[in-house]
Structure formats: structure tokens, C-alpha cells
């Protein structure tokens, strides 16, 4: 029986793909314009035993708005049948943060229209199913004064059955065993000539874990408890700022249910676990914030000398990840500084390593990130959590 096939546009380092690999889908094309992300994609294809020739040919490092990139895609796909198209066009301009920081609310940002490149490829190759991922800000984005979301849905609905019910399409990764609160718009489309509907797929994306929010409302049903930051990272070697390596020998002392999902029992390596260097003031700041689970405003009362931002405006500029809860949303901004991801163990006086961020995103431990450390952080922050992607892939597979 031949495998189901997929292509991944705006693939980043391949978080989406990872979920599909795990469900035994075959990758035909990945496209991304970031060179380091493309190196990571290639590395992962080799891990899954794709031949060197296929790896070099099918990872296209290019810009989807350029004709030559589209010609390369055509050359590979020729007359191949594609089952699933996945992808998440970059979303800075849909994110509320991006809009707030741009005097023009990002009206003129060309990234508003990258979804158009996704739709062009969708209409050209007509896969059976597509999955389109984006930030929740897409639902309220108005780059040219009118809502973009209905426009995208109308365009997708020409040939596909899609669902625009906001409660259905907004998924939170914490429900799928990811140790992170991350709400994303996931639009699934099913080609209209097929005998199932988009709603059928959503109904089969099975929630396995309740969220802290559900816990506070006492509405947990028969779901498992959310996975916490402690579950995700407490086995990792302790590091002080500036310590660690890109590859080291390592075996956890004990395996919890989460580690069993992301790490093979006999695997004895750890990748991308290097701590940033921090200056003395930062170390002190992290130590106090972490020890007391404070926000910046609390620190300002006790040690104003350590606060150089206005805590009223930058109250959440520094965030300690709480051990007993899932992580907050991992963001690409991590590559600039790690202040949103301060380690819960105050003795370590530091922000997260790439591997710790990857654990919060549910990447397997044998997943190697390539490129500079700065770029690795960006790759992790932009990714779709693999465990959530896998639940989506599983649901789609039932109907193909």
C-alpha cells in the first residue's frame, strides 16, 4: 500500500511535517526561505531515511512569491497526486503584537498576502485535504480596513468544504499533550468531490488533556491532566549561563509519560542544550523573579535598580515559566532575548535553551536544529507543535 503524500509550504523547521511523518505520510515538497530552517528540514528527512537525492531535490529553499520557486515546485510535482497540503504563512502582520508595534497597523505589510501564494498552490494542485495554520489574530486582522478572514474563507470555499466556526477552528495545543498554552487557527479544507466533510476531520482531532482553564471551571470530563513545564524539562542537565553543548551524551534518570512520547528509551544523546550568557544584573533579576514567581512590577518594588523598563508597560516583558503549569506560548522573539522564558529553577539564573523550548513545543529529543543558536530559537518559536500536528494527521488519515 503506497503512503499518503503531503507537501509543506512555509515549512519552517518542520513541526507540522513531524506530525505527518509520525503518522507515516510521505513528504514530497517542503518550501521555506530561511536557509537554516531548510538545513533542519533536510536533516530530519535523512533521519527518516529519505535518500540524499530526494532530500536535496524536495527541500526548496526559496521565496513563494517568486516565479522560480513555483517552477521548482512544478518540476517536482509534475503529475504526482498530492493527498494533503499543509502550511502556515508567516503571520507577523496578523499578530496583535505586530499590529501594535507598527504605526500603520501593518496595512502595507506584504506578508498580509502570503496566504495568496498558499491559495495559488492549493488551486493549482488540488490536494484532497489542506490544513492552514495561523495565529488567532487572523480572525480579527483588517490589513486594508476590512476583515481578512471572510476573504480567505471565501477563496478557499471555491473548491473545498471548509468550516469557519471560530470555536471549531481555534485549537489549543495543550489539549493534545503539548506542555504549552498555544491557541492557533487551524483551517481544514476537504475537496468538494470527496465523500467526507471538514467537520468530520475536526470531530476526529481528539482532545486528550484538559487545560488549566477547564480545571478552574471544574470541567475536566475524562481527560488527562495537562502536561507541565516540570514534566517537560526537569530531567535535563542543569546549566549555568554560558554552559552546555550542541551535542552531549545523556540519559534521563526516569521517564514520565511525556518523555516516553518524545524520547526513545535507548536514545543517549541530547542536542541544542546550550545556555545563553547573561550579565550579572540579568542573573540577579532572573534569580529573584524565579525564586518568588514574581512579575516585573514586584521586582520594581523591592529592587528598582534591577528594573530598566517601565513595569507598567512591560509588565510581561519578563516571564518565569511556572513548574506546575504548561508553558506560555513559545514565540519567535526568543531569538532576540529569552526573557519570556526564564527557567523555573532559580539556581540556574538563566533563560531557556533551544532544547528546553523545543520540549515545550513537543519536538522529539532526536530532532536536531541546524544553523546558529539565534536561528534555532526562531525555528522553534515559529513551529507548529509536532504532537498537535500528529493528532491532525491522524484525523485526516482516517478519511483518506
From TrEMBL:
Pfam family, one: DNA_methylase
Catalytic machinery residues: 91
EC number(s) given by UniProt: 2.1.1.37
GO biological process per UniProt: DNA restriction-modification system; methylation; negative regulation of gene expression via chromosomal CpG island methylation
Molecular function, one GO term: endonuclease activity
PROSITE patterns reported in the protein's UniProt record: C5_MTASE_1, C5_MTASE_2, SAM_MT_C5
The protein's enzyme class: transferase
Coiled-coil segments on the chain, per record: none
Annotated keywords: Endonuclease, Hydrolase, Methyltransferase, Nuclease, Restriction system, S-adenosyl-L-methionine, Transferase
Catalysed reaction, written as an equation: a 2'-deoxycytidine in DNA + S-adenosyl-L-methionine = a 5-methyl-2'-deoxycytidine in DNA + S-adenosyl-L-homocysteine + H(+)
Family according to the record: Belongs to the class I-like SAM-binding methyltransferase superfamily. C5-methyltransferase family.
Protein name: Cytosine-specific methyltransferase
Source species taxonomy: Bacteria, Pseudomonadati, Bacteroidota, Flavobacteriia, Flavobacteriales
